[in-house]
């Protein structure tokens, strides 16, 4: 996580783990949660922009973390990580600031769930959304089974979550996942 950049009321929070495609782990979730506390408390900030360093916005949760914890029989650590992820996403979703996810690159699983907690999602020609969880027999555990239905309706949510399809920015826009009013979509 990079230090928040502030420019004329806009705080940019950059997830900075490009070597891991900005995958969410305990450190990233903790740093992002702390950064949200800082910018949410700053009266000079009116907009929070989330972006990712490198080729991905956030390519999901760090799968190695889960595998390592399961092998170590440390399931409570997974429960804590998930609870901390929900807390962080709720800080983002309930922020009084305008929140924007600049999804340049991959936004998969937890990364898409992070973007969906924002008020607006901006896509680019490099944007790729996907919920890969169902293809490995799990469900999107950080709000991916609720936020899509609230944002774009049950039929579009069902198609995106249960089918696990890749979606470019235009498809995301057509479904209502990329700024549901269409004002911020970049094709």
List keywords for this structure.
187 residues, alpha/beta, 2-enoyl-CoA Hydratase, Chain A, domain 1, five-stranded mixed sheet, 7 helices, 9 strands
Q: What's the arrangement of secondary structure elements?
A:
Layout: E1 5-7, E2 10-15, H1 26-41, E3 47-52, E4 56-58, H2 63-71, H3 75-93, E5 98-103, E6 106-108, H4 110-116, E7 120-123, E8 128-130, H5 147-152, H6 154-163, E9 167-168, H7 169-175
Parallel strand pairs: 2-3, 3-5, 4-6, 5-7, 6-8
Antiparallel strand pairs: 1-2, 8-9
CATH class: Alpha Beta
Q: Given the helix and strand composition, which structural class is it?
A: alpha/beta
* Gyration radius, in Å: 15 Å
CATH homologous superfamily, by name?
2-enoyl-CoA Hydratase, Chain A, domain 1
In the predicted model, the low-confidence regions spanning at least 5 consecutive residues are 180-187
The CATH topology corresponds to 2-enoyl-CoA Hydratase, Chain A, domain 1
Please tell me what the overall shape is. Answer: globular
Polypeptide structure, described:
The chain has helices spanning 26-41, 63-71, 75-93, 110-116, 147-152, 154-163, 169-175; strands spanning 5-7, 10-15, 47-52, 56-58, 98-103, 106-108, 120-123, 128-130, 167-168. The strands form 2 sheets. It has a 5-stranded mixed sheet. Strands 4-6-8-9 form a 4-stranded mixed sheet. Mean pLDDT is 85; it is low at 180-187. The two termini are 27 Å apart. The longest helix is centred in the middle third of the chain and has 19 residues, at 75-93. It is globular. Strand 1 (5-7) and strand 2 form a beta hairpin. Helix 1 (26-41) packs parallel to helix 3. The protein is α/β, with parallel strands linked by helices and 187 residues long. The chain is built from 7 helices and 9 strands, in the order E-E-H-E-E-H-H-E-E-H-E-E-H-H-E-H. 40% of the residues lie in helices and 19% in strands. The protein has one domain (5-175): 2-enoyl-CoA Hydratase, Chain A, domain 1, CATH 3.90.226.
